[in-house]
Amino acid sequence: MTEGRLVFFGELLIRLTAPDNELLMQSPALSLHVGGAEANVAIGLAHLGHDCAMIGCVPDNALGRGAVAAVRGAGVDCAAVARGPGRMGLYFLSVGSGLRASEIVYDRAGSSFAATGPQDYDFARLLAGAGLLHLSGITPALGPRSAEAALAAARAAKRLGVPVSFDGNYRAMLWDAWDSDPRAVLADLIGSADILFGNHRDLSLVLGKAFSGDGEDRRREAAEAGFAAFPGLRLIASTARHTVTADHHRIAARVDLRDTCHQTAEIDVTGIVDRIGAGDAFAAGVLHAHLAGGDARAMAETGLALTCLKHSLPGDASRFGQADIDALHRGGLDVRR
Question: Could you say which of 167, 194, 280, 316 is catalytic?
Answer without folding.
Answer: 280
